[in-house]
Design goal:
The structure holds 2 protein chains of 2 kinds. Chain A is of the alpha/beta class. Chain A has a domain at 40-49 and 82-241: Rossmann fold, CATH 3.40.50.300. Chain A is 37% helix and 25% strand. Chain A contains 12 helices and 10 strands. Chain A is globular. The two termini of chain A are 32 Å apart. Chain B is mainly alpha-helical. Chain B has 2 domains: 3-213, ABC transporter involved in vitamin B12 uptake, BtuC (Orthogonal Bundle), CATH 1.10.3470.10; 282-384, Winged helix-like DNA-binding domain superfamily/Winged helix DNA-binding domain (Arc Repressor Mutant, subunit A, Orthogonal Bundle), CATH 1.10.10. In chain B, strand 3 (342-345) and strand 4 form a beta hairpin. In chain B, helix 1 (3-28) runs parallel beside helix 7 (143-171) and helix 2 (32-41) packs across helix 9 (183-222). The radius of gyration of chain B is 29 Å and the shape is elongated. Classes of the chains: A alpha/beta, B mainly alpha. The A-B interface holds A 56, 59-61, 77, 80, 83, 85, 87, 91-93, 96-99, 103, 106, 109-110, 112-115, 117-118, 142, 144, 147, 158, 177-179 and B 28, 30, 161-165, 167-168, 170-172, 174-175, 177-181, 222, 225-228, 230-231, 368-370, 372.
C-alpha cells in the first residue's frame, strides 16, 4: 500500500487532541491519530504508555478531559453499531455463572437495544461465531472451565457476532498458547481482507512485522503512526521504549 | 395453622423472594457489604418519613428511605473515589454515621410512638398480621403483605425487562458501556431496587435479617449452579425454604422469628458449602486427592518410560528411587495395574502398550503447553480414577 492510496482512503477513526489524566498525571497527552479504513494496526508502547486507555477513551468507556473522537466522521455515540470491542481477558470475572454460548450472545445485545431479548436469529449468529473460532464443541461449557486461550477465543467470537466495521482488541494474545495465537491472527487477517479495520493493543514487538500492516507507537504522547514497513524501525522503537528497547524486547 | 400463621409465612416468603433477586446480582458484583450499609442507613429516611406521615406503612416513608439508601451508595463511592480510603473503609464510615442519626432521631422524638431500635434491628414479623389494610370498611389483609407484594411485583417486572442488561453489565462493564447500556444507570437502578426492597422488608424482618436474606440465599445458590437463571431460581427457593422452616423453628423454640430464619439460612449455607457436588469443600478435597494420585501415577509412568535398566524398575527399589512413602507408592502401583498400564513380571515393572501410549500422549501435551488437555485424555484411558 502506498501513501497515495492511503490518502484516498476513508478515515475510519479520527482522534483529535485527546488528553486523559488521572488528577494531574496525564496518561495520554494531546493525541492526534487517524486510522485509515481497512488496516490491521498494532498499538505498541511500554507498560503505562496509555495503550488500553486510548482504546477505552475512543469507546467512551473513559471520559477524556479534552479532545474528541470520531468514527467515520461522526461521534462514537452515533456509530456504536460499527464498533466491536474485545477487552483484556482479565477484566471480567470468569467464575460468573454463564456458558460460552451465552457470553458470545452478549455481542448481539447492542443491535437489540434495551429490553428486547435475543431470539433464534441471535442464537444462530452466536453459534456461527463460535464455529468460526473453533469453539463450537465448548458452547455449553461454563466459562471458568475453559483454558486461557479458549476464553480469549470466546471473547473474539463475541466481537465477531457484533458484525462491526471496526474492531478494537486489548491484548488478545496475552496468556494464550501458540495454536490459539495463530488461530486468532488468522481471523484478524480474514477480517482485514473483508475490508474491516482492526486495532490491536500488542505487546510482542517481534511479531509486529509478521502480523500487522499498520502500527502506532505510543508512550503517553504519540510517537509515530503509519505502515509497518515504513516506520517500524530502530529510530521509532528507541523513541518509544528508550535507549534500552532491545532489553525490553527480550523480556 | 391459623390465618395469622399463614399470613406471617406468606409475608416472610415474599420478603425472601424480593430480597433474593437484587441479592443475586449484589453477590455476583461482589457488593454484598453494600446491602449491609443500605439496610442500616435507610433508618433516618424511615424516621423522618414517619415524623411527616405518622404512619409506618406510608409510601412516602418508602420513597424517603430508598432515597437515603441511594445517598449511602453515592457517599461511599464519593469517599472511595478520593483514593484516600478503600471501599470497605468507606462503607464502614458512611452507614454507622447515617444509622446513628436515625437512632438519635428516634430517641429524641419518638419515645411515645411505636418505633424503637429493637424493632428496627430484628423486625416485628409476629405483629405484622395485626396491622390490617382496610379499604372502605373491608379488611383485605395485613398492610405489610400488600407493601412487600407490590415491591416484589415491581422487582420481578424490572428483572424480566432488564435481565439482559443486568447480566451483561454485571459480567463485563466495559462491553456494556461500549454497547450503549450505561453501567451507571443499571448500577443505580439496582441500588434503588435494593433500597426499596430493604425498606419494604425492614418493617417485617428488620435491618439485620434483610442482609441475611439478600446475601445468604444467593451465596448458597452460587455454589450449586453455573447458570444465572438457575441461580436466581435457587436463591428464591432457598430464601422461601428458610423463611418457612425458620418460622416453624421459632414456633417450636418459642424464639424470635427473624433469628430463626437467619439461623436456617446459615445452616443451609453451611450444608451446601460442605456438600455441594462441585464447589463444596468435600468435593474439592476429594478432587484434589484424586488429582494428586493421578499426577503421581504419571510421574511413575514417566520414570518407567525413561529407564530400561532393570534395577530402576525393580519393585523393591522403585520406592527408594522415586522417593515416595510406602502407602503412596502402593496406591500408585495398584492404580497403574488396575488401569492395565503396567505389568509386573518377576518383580520387574514394565509399561504395557496402553501405558506407553498414555505416557507418550501426556508428554506431548506437556511439551506443547496444553496440559489442560490431559484432563480430557484421562477419560479415554482410565478404567478407574485415582
Amino acid at each position: 500500500m502506498t501513501w497515495e492510496m492511503v490518502m484516498k482512503q476513508k478515515i475510519a477513526v479520527k482522534v483529535d487532541d485527546l488528553t486523559v489524566a488521572y488528577n494531574y498525571k496525564p496518561v495520554l497527552w494531546d493525541i492526534d491519530l487517524e486510522i485509515p479504513e481497512g488496516v490491521l494496526m498494532a498499538i505498541v508502547g511500554p507498560n503505562g504508555a496509555g495503550k488500553s486507555t486510548l482504546i477505552k477513551s475512543i469507546l467512551g468507556i473513559l471520559k477524556p478531559i479534552a479532545g474528541s473522537v470520531t468514527i467515520y466522521d461522526k461521534p462514537y455515540d452515533k456509530q456504536r453499531k460499527l464498533v466491536a470491542y474485545v477487552p483484556q481477558k482479565g477484566s471480567v470475572d470468569w467464575d460468573f455463572p454463564t456458558t460460552a454460548l451465552d457470553v458470545v450472545t452478549m455481542g448481539t445485545y447492542g443491535s437489540l437495544g434495551w429490553i428486547k431479548r435475543p431470539g433464534q436469529k441471535e442464537k444462530k449468529a452466536a453459534l456461527e461465531a463460535l464455529e468460526k473460532v473453533g469453539m463450537l464443541p465448548f458452547k455449553s461449557r461454563q466459562i471458568s472451565q475453559l483454558s486461557g486461550g479458549q476464553q480469549q477465543r470466546i471473547f473474539l467470537a463475541r466481537a465477531l457476532v457484533q458484525n462491526a466495521s471496526i474492531y478494537f482488541m486489548d491484548e488478545p494474545f496475552q496468556g494464550v498458547d501458540a495454536t490459539t495465537e495463530i488461530a486468532i491472527i488468522n481471523i484478524l487477517k480474514e477480517l482485514r481482507k473483508a475490508g474491516k479495520t482492526v486495532i490491536v493493543v500488542h505487546h510482542d514487538l517481534q511479531t509486529v512485522p509478521e502480523y500487522f500492516d499498520w502500527v502506532t507507537f505510543l508512550n503517553v504522547k504519540k510517537i509515530a503512526t503509519g505502515p509497518v514497513k515504513d516506520i517500524f524501525n530502530d529510530d521509532n522503537l528507541t523513541k518509544t521504549y528508550g535507549i534500552n528497547y532491545k532489553v525490553s524486547i527480550q523480556e | 395453622m391459623n390465618s395469622a400463621q399463614i399470613e406471617i409465612q406468606l409475608i416472610a416468603s415474599l420478603v425472601a423472594i424480593a430480597c433474593a433477586i437484587p441479592g443475586t446480582f449484589l453477590v455476583l458484583r461482589k457488593m454484598a457489604m453494600i446491602s449491609d450499609a443500605i439496610s442500616h442507613s435507610i433508618l433516618p429516611g424511615i424516621v423522618i418519613g414517619f415524623f411527616i406521615t405518622q404512619d409506618l406503612n406510608s409510601p412516602l416513608l418508602i420513597v424517603l428511605a430508598a432515597f437515603t439508601g441511594v445517598i449511602t451508595v453515592v457517599l461511599v463511592e464519593y469517599i472511595q473515589k478520593t483514593g484516600l480510603v478503600k471501599e470497605d473503609t468507606a462503607i464502614g464510615l458512611v452507614f454507622p454515621a447515617l444509622f446513628s442519626i436515625g437512632v438519635i432521631l428516634i430517641a429524641k422524638n419518638a419515645n411515645d410512638v411505636h418505633l424503637d431500635v429493637d424493632a428496627v434491628l430484628v423486625g416485628e414479623l409476629a405483629l405484622a398480621p395485626f396491622d390490617r389494610l382496610i379499604i372502605s370498611g373491608v379488611d383485605i389483609g395485613p398492610k405489610s403483605l400488600w407493601i412487600i407484594g407490590t415491591i416484589l411485583l415491581i422487582t420481578i417486572t424490572l428483572l424480566i425487562a432488564f435481565f439482559k442488561e443486568l447480566k451483561v453489565s454485571t459480567f463485563d462493564k466495559g462491553l456494556a458501556a461500549s454497547l450503549g447500556f450505561s453501567p451507571a444507570i443499571i448500577h443505580y437502578g439496582l441500588m434503588t431496587v435494593s433500597s426499596v426492597t430493604t425498606v419494604g422488608a425492614f418493617d417485617a424482618v428488620g435491618a439485620i435479617l434483610v442482609v441475611a436474606l439478600m446475601i445468604a440465599p444467593a451465596a448458597t445458590a452460587y455454589l450449586l449452579t453455573t447458570n444465572l437463571k438457575k441461580m436466581l431460581g435457587l436463591a428464591m427457593f432457598f430464601g422461601v425454604f428458610s423463611a418457612i422452616s425458620g418460622y416453624w423453628l421459632a414456633h417450636k423454640l418459642d424464639a424470635s422469628i427473624a433469628g430463626s430464619i437467619t439461623t436456617m439460612l446459615g445452616l443451609l449455607f453451611l450444608a451446601v458449602y460442605l456438600f455441594a457436588p462441585n464447589k463444596g469443600v468435600i468435593a474439592v478435597m476429594y478432587r484434589e486427592k484424586q488429582q494428586r494420585t493421578e499426577v503421581s501415577l504419571l510421574t511413575f509412568l514417566l520414570h518407567l518410560k525413561n529407564h530400561n535398566e532393570l534395577e530402576e524398575r525393580h519393585v523393591n527399589h522403585l520406592r527408594e528411587h522415586i522417593n515416595w512413602h510406602k502407602v503412596r507408592a502402593k496406591n500408585v502401583l495398584e492404580l497403574a495395574q488396575k488401569n492395565n498400564m503396567i505389568i509386573i513380571d518377576n518383580n520387574i515393572v514394565s509399561l504395557t502398550e496402553k501405558g506407553d501410549a498414555f505416557t507418550s500422549k501426556a508428554i506431548d501435551y506437556i511439551i506443547t503447553n496444553e496440559d489442560a488437555q490431559i484432563e480430557d485424555m484421562k477419560d479415554d484411558f482410565f478404567l478407574f480414577r485415582g
